[in-house]
Every structure is written in structure tokens, then in C-alpha cells.
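Why run this: before we spend reagent on co-expression, it is cheaper to look at a predicted model of the complex and decide which construct boundaries make sense. The entries below are exactly what would go into the expression plan.
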Amino acid sequence: MSLLARVQTCRRWDPAAYRPFLIDGRLYGRIRQNLAERLRGFPAVFEVTDDAVALAASLDSFEARSAAVAEVAAVLREEGEIRIWRDEFYPITRRWGAAPELKMERGAVPDFGVRAFGVHMNGLVQKADGLHLWVARRSLTKPTAPGKLDHLVAGGQPHGMGILQNLIKECGEEAGIPPDLARQACPVGALSYLCVQPDGLRDDICFVYDLFLPEEFEPRNTDGEVEDFFLWPMAQVMETIAAGEDFKFNCALVIIDLFVRRGYLTPDDPDYQEIVAGLHLPD
Amino acid sequence: MSLLARVQTCRRWDPAAYRPFLIDGRLYGRIRQNLAERLRGFPAVFEVTDDAVALAASLDSFEARSAAVAEVAAVLREEGEIRIWRDEFYPITRRWGAAPELKMERGAVPDFGVRAFGVHMNGLVQKADGLHLWVARRSLTKPTAPGKLDHLVAGGQPHGMGILQNLIKECGEEAGIPPDLARQACPVGALSYLCVQPDGLRDDICFVYDLFLPEEFEPRNTDGEVEDFFLWPMAQVMETIAAGEDFKFNCALVIIDLFVRRGYLTPDDPDYQEIVAGLHLPD
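The model came back. C-alpha cells follow.
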């Protein structure tokens, strides 16, 4: 599987399978046709037509929207429609930093196909024989992508927390990186993707950080989410990504961006332009 | 002027003012309405309708297309329609690395609104007191953006030359950087923009390189295209970009990408997501 093919899998979804989810007339998400039909059963919360699902106009505040959607999500969970439940709220907005329209249970986010935000951190070690990347194997008990290869630190962005604050928290929980070291992580960009995954439609913005770690640093997982850590030379990372499915889909994207930013790919590669463009969807 | 506003100026154009320029039924450029009407005068080369300008289907080879368009361009130059003439050919393709459909006089490219490619290199110096960027002032005799601030090295991509090969050539001509040093430049990505400029509609892909230069390096212009060079600390570069119009529009974009990649901007800035997305147009 080429690097370009890995990027293209992060843009794969079928518009015909979804109905736009609107708030105040603006597109916020995409809902599977059968779930859209089910939402006709909640006329106080959703205005469902054959073309769209709109949040009821009567719900005109963050609190009212959040409470009404939470009640529906609880019913959908009972019915087995929402299969993964996180007990964690995500802010629902198209743009990070804008006031969210509502907060939504994280497990419902891919069902509504609304945008989510996350942090991904490349844990790097510059050794005498070249650049190395810390790779984590996700715990076999994770609800999504169990056993897949992951970044040293990555996590979804909960409601009410800043990006850097979340990164520092995740650095501690996932890899035992102390706050003073985590704070040295350098923000290096944002990637976007929109694709079908086992948990639903993922419309995410990934804020990416690089952190150069001392050679003697040994990551230590504290939240049970990581099975194992490996420190791989970049050539091994490239071979593994290109070979296929070992890395979680969005980690592959973040690592391909690392290849781009650090000159492991060059513009004279005929896929270069498409790979770079494919890391960023139009806003 | 905010950094976001600088990015947004690189996406400003009015679709109603242009007619799509098609080759084999696919969009390759955009032609001003009055020029589209003028092209009705060349029925062997262009099939002009009220909705589009298509390259004549009878022109079915690179050579035939290039020769036919060159004849038209020469007439348009005589008529003053094409005001800047470069005597240099650009390859016409939507994707770098694909075989071009034709080659076109560089001066005609913004009139046809076809995609062009270029290289931009950040010349960086890591000093004890922080990162510095080499800035060039363009010669007052340059046909585009005379006297504006520029990168140490930047240039359009001519037909028949590789990107790295062009970068090495421009490094020598514009800044006296020897080939062995130029070869150490690291490719760090590609940016895209589509906007109206004084010379026409610019639909460009910029391949971006960073080169770390020794402190003692002094650039030396050899082709008369540069008035002067300055080595500025990053804070001065940021202030100048944010203050307004001193930098050439596409240099500002490349430098804002540098800010993003090197952590001078952070995701908790409410403009961050839009700035990053604005550096990349959909392919």
C-alpha cells in the first residue's frame, strides 16, 4: 500500500449514505440514512426531512441543545445504536476556539458525523545513527483500533480543556512524560480527515506536536491504554506504514506529515503533491 | 493585518469574472471573460462557448498544443493583452510529475489562469539568541512585485527541469549559494493558492524548502533580481508580516507556514485552524 493510498483511505466516505446534520441552517455533521429515519421519533429535538436532519430551532442555547441531545443519545445507547459509550463530552463546533454549539457524548460523535478535535504527538529521539520515533501498541482492550500501532501520545479533545492542557494530561497518562518535559513539545500544524471507520463517520482535526526526548527517556503507561512501546528508526516506520494496516489510520496520516515536514519525501516524487494536499481538507 | 487575513488574500478571486479553460474536458485554468471573447478569433485553437473555453480537440499532442497556443500568445502580446513576456516555458499540468498537456510562455500563464509551480526556500540561521530568517528585497526592475520583500531564494518552475535542480540553480543565481550547500536544503511541504494578482490569476503550487545556513554565510546576488539582503530575527519577521504589505503575497504564505511548522503559532490561537487550512487548497 503506497503512502498516497494511506492518505486516500482517510478521505473515503459515501455522501449518498448520509444526510446532512444542520444547526441554525449550517452543516455540522452527517448522519447515516437509517439513523436519520430513527431520529424522526424525537420531534422535539430533531426536524427530520428526506434531505437533512436539523437540530430543532427551539433549542437555542448551548445548555438546551446539550441536554436534549444527551436524552436522545441515552435512548440510542439503550437501543444498541450507539455501541461505544465514553462518559466524556466533546465540544461541537466546526472551528476550534469558537464557542461550541453544544457538547455531546464522545461515543455519539461518529454517529452524528460531527467534527471532533484531537492531539497527536510524535515522540522523537535524535540518535547518532539518525532520527527515531517512539511507537506505541494500543491496548487490546481499547474500544477503537485495539492492538494497532499508535503515537507515543494521542487523545481526543474533551469539552472544556485547552489543546496544550490536554496534551500535557495525555503525556502523563499515556507515556509518563512529566509536565515540564511535555511543555517542550512543539506545535507543528493541524491535519484533517473525513472517513468511515468502524465506529462511524470521523470528521476530525488533529493538532500535531513534535517532542524531542532524551535518549535515556523510557515511556511508562499509567492508564492501561498502551500494551507496549518501541523506539524505531525512521526507515522502519516508513516501511511499516507503506506495508499496510499496522498503524491506526490517523496515526499513519500524522506520520506521513512527519515524513513531509522532515524531508523524507521530496517534491520530485510524483505522488508528493497529492499526498500533501490529502493531509488537509478544505475548511 | 492579521496572519489569517494575509492567508485569505491568497484565496481571493471572483468566479464570475472567469470562464473555465478546459483540455480534454478537464479544468486546467480560468480565463477572464473579455479574453475568452477575444479567443473566439482563434477557432482552430480554442472552442469558445458562453460557459467555457476548450482547447480544440484536434490539437491532440503536446507539440501541437504548445505550438498552437504559442502562436496565439504571440498575437496577444502584440495586442498588449499579455504585458509581461518572459521567453521561458512553463509546463501545463494540474499535478507536478504528470506529463504536461503543453508548455506555455510564462507570461501567458496568469492570463489563462493555469496552474504553475515554484520553489521557495527559507534561508535560516540558528544564532545563540534565536532563529533568524534571511530576507531579500526584490529588485526595483522585477516585472512582478518590484521592491517587495522576498525569500532568500524563490523561483518559478520552468518546463523540463526537476524541482531540486531548479532550487540549486536559483540558489546560485539569487543568493550565491554553492550547489553542495544548496543540496542540504530540506523539502518541508507544498502550499497552494489561487488569487488575483496584478499579472492575472495565480493558481500555484509552491514547493517549500528550509536551509540552515552557517552564521558566516553572506548571500550574494548574481542575476540582478535582488536589491538587498537582511538577516532578521523571527520576531521582526512576524511583526512585518502582520503589519501589512511589505512581503510579496506568496512569501508571506510560505513564512506563515514556517511559523506553523516551528511552533510560533499554537492551536489554542482561535485563528490557527483556519490559517493552517488556508495554506492548502483542495487538489
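Residues 20 and 175 of chain B are 38 Å apart (CA to CA). Chain B has two domains: 3-11+116-277, 15-114. Bring this page to Monday's planning discussion.
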